[in-house]
Amino acid sequence: xxxxxxxxxxxxxxxxxVQAAEKGASVVLLEKNAFVGGGANAAxxxxxxxxxxxRGKSIGLTREEMFKYTMEYSHFKADxxxxxxYYWGSAENLEWLASHGMKFDPIAMTPKDAPTWHVxxxxxxxxxxxxxxKCLYDAAVKAGVKVMTSTPAKxxxxxxxxxxxxxxxxxxxxxVTIRSKATIIATGGFGNSKEKxxxxxxxxxxxxxxxxxxxxxxxGIEMAxxxxxxxxxxxxxxxxxxxxxxIEFPGALYCMSWQPFNLWVNSQGKRFVxxxxxxxxxxxxxxxxxxxxxxxxxxxDNHSVDYVQSAGIDNGIGVIVPVLDKLPKLRDxxxxxxxxxxxxxxxxxxxxxxxxxxxxxxxxxxxxVKEYNGFAKTGFDLAMxxxxxxxxxxxGDTYYAIKIFPFHYTSLGGIRIDADFHVLDKxxxxxxGLYAAGxxxxxxxxxxxxxxxxxxxxxxxxxSGRHAALSAIEELx
Length: 477
Description:
The protein is α+β, with helices and mostly antiparallel strands. The protein has helices spanning 13-22, 52-56, 63-73, 80-98, 128-143, 194-201, 219-226, 252-256, 281-289, 302-311, 330-339, 351-358, 362-378, 456-476; strands spanning 2-7, 27-30, 45-47, 104-107, 117-120, 146-148, 153-159, 162-169, 175-185, 235-241, 263-265, 296-301, 345-348, 399-412, 422-424, 430-436. It is built from 14 helices and 16 strands. The model has no long low-confidence stretch (mean pLDDT 97).
């Protein structure tokens, strides 16, 4: 028995459990994996606006301009009340985390992002998302939270229209029943379920793949729907992804595919986007997904390799691979991937050979490269308006091409909630005893995640987890 059961021990579930326990509630946290944290372990920074860390760097962003941007960017599909409350509470949310020992440094992730991304500093020998999880796990243990790993929730217990607990399963297959006064769903979405990517989104799961295998299979969303929760629209936080033997996230070859100086072509050997959209990874994912076959090719040459290894990369992968990193293992990774005979990474001595290897019309590819090199020479991209800073000719004696996919970090959406984090039924009424937080919650985005509000999903998870717990505890009084 417990006052509160939290389903999921990740970015939203951990702060929910800590916040509730520190308010005097007895808390059980269920985590299906053998470890807590989930995707948060690989995350890096949380959204915040008008924080003291921004103030310390003379960053003058306001809640009003961030709110207006988000509503317009989502085409007003984002819930205005949830968005407003989150933005006006984001600084306090960071302060609460800092009171437990977290450190933050607000930065702009790319030239196209605002400095809302509060990168998590070192805690207990860890950094970034892993530090966030370790910090909150330590706080949970201190506050008396009962953490049950390898214990996935299987079913919500409903009695007389109220959720009164959860049935779970331990690692030995035994049923574990927890009776509770309130339950928070925070299971992290469904991005690792190929069936749900196909059935819920209508996408090919062999193309739209998850970046990291985290066992996120939509359990919480399904449990909520089963007891009558209203569905919301759902989408993916897409990004440019690559795969093949010897190609690993976030290795040198993976990072090379993200560089804004590359030339991108579709199955017809033609450009289709300003390649600096690689900075805005969800937009890049959209552009790739819109092509025939939902894939494309990123092309560079030996001069590009020389540039990176002398001047460093222009686009990092978060702060895991920072800008200016010279990718010292790049040549070795390229050599190994080519030797492995990857169909997704090839090299060629001329454009005719390259076109044959990547399966595009040679005349189109040669015409595209000629036009692009002309733009690079004049400094004006008349086709896609790419910044001259990243217009580098593709004219070396060796060409390289890597197949790029619309992979994703997480799913977004599924459960509708109100401003107090109650899960709502199909008549817009709260389901008593049931709350939801994190990326299981819908109506935060339109069809595309925005990176100008960097750290949005991570910050929302922390904020919504805490405030779902506060709402539940207040009502238990």
